[in-house]
Design goal:
Layout: H1 2-15, E1 22-33, H2 42-49, E2 60-61, E3 65-75, E4 80-91, E5 94-104, E6 107-130, E7 137-161, E8 164-173, E9 177-189, E10 194-207, E11 211-219, E12 222-223, H3 230-233, E13 234-238, E14 253-256, E15 260-261, E16 264-274
């Protein structure tokens, strides 16, 4: 964290140091998320461990989605520069459809459940730019760090069976995320002031929320949240805790710490304006 703050401070000072060599960059893009580390689905992992005293869920791949990015840069020479970016990452839903049929005698019943999971975060990105400094078409590399601010992960499902239907949604949040980024791209100079760019970016970042809450719970269209205690609808994530402890209904529940993988590969396009 101290190293990140130091790099950010250096970048910010450099950005305002000389208006003649500064630029502003605006772009949009989309990315494909990398898989969770253990290679199994969230539902499978939960079912495997539900019978254990300690529930452990491996890292999830939530990096697929869109991003909007704004950055300020300072070229110290035609070959090297530094940049501070702000990215808004908006994740796409990961969907799972489950169907289960139960037969008792001559009677069969079918239950379905549609799950959705997604994540989002605001990212601060200080980086170093390396380029050969060509005039018209100029390739570059960008290397740096990512600090995820206000990250969150949401999960929910719609379920139906022969007895009725229900909706459940929760949000996990708190804490920050940290990682690294590496990009390779090309600048195309339209004029002395305007530059088009396109780039491929790899972001390696994970996020472990510190707390969560239920945001919606209905049964056959009737709101169930008023019947929930604090323990039912709020929780904190802990590295270790006593799973057999009696938590008061007026206090938040406890869950095992879980990590979500926001790593992805992105394609970004945009415009740079030399100031």
């Amino acid at each position: 964290m101290k190293m990140f703050l130091l790099i950010s401070a250096i970048c910010l000072m450099a950005v305002v140091a000389s208006a003649q060599t500064n630029y502003i960059r605006f772009g949009v893009g989309g990315g494909l998320g990398l898989n969770q580390y253990n290679g199994s689905s969230w539902s499978d992992e939960q079912q495997i461990n539900n019978t254990l005293d300690n529930l452990t869920i491996k890292s999830q791949g939530l990096g697929g989605g869109f991003n909007i990015n704004l950055a300020f840069g300072h070229m110290m020479s035609k070959y090297i520069g530094i940049e501070v970016g702000v990215n808004e990452f908006i994740g796409l839903n990961k969907k799972t459809h489950n169907t289960r049929t139960t037969t008792t005698g001559n009677t069969s019943s079918t239950a379905t459940q549609d799950e959705k999971m997604s994540g989002m975060m605001l990212q601060l990105v200080p980086t170093i730019i390396i380029t050969p400094g060509l005039e018209k078409i100029n390739p570059y590399a960008r290397l740096g760090m990512i600090l995820g601010i206000l990250p969150s992960q949401t999960y929910g499902f719609d379920a139906t069976d022969n007895t009725g239907s229900g909706v459940y949604k929760e949000k996990n949040y708190g804490g920050i995320a940290a990682g690294f980024t590496a990009a390779g791209g090309v600048d195309y100079h339209l004029s002395g002031k305007m530059v088009l760019y396109a780039e491929m970016v790899f972001n390696g970042i994970t996020y472990a929320p510190t707390k969560g809450k239920v945001t919606e719970a209905t049964a056959d269209g009737v709101d169930q949240l008023p019947t929930y205690t604090t323990r039912d609808k709020e929780w904190t994530y802990e590295k270790t805790y006593d799973t057999k402890a009696n938590i008061p209904i007026g206090s938040a529940d406890k869950r095992n710490k879980v990590s979500y993988n926001f790593s992805n590969v992105e394609l970004n396009i945009g415009i740079k304006l030399n100031l």
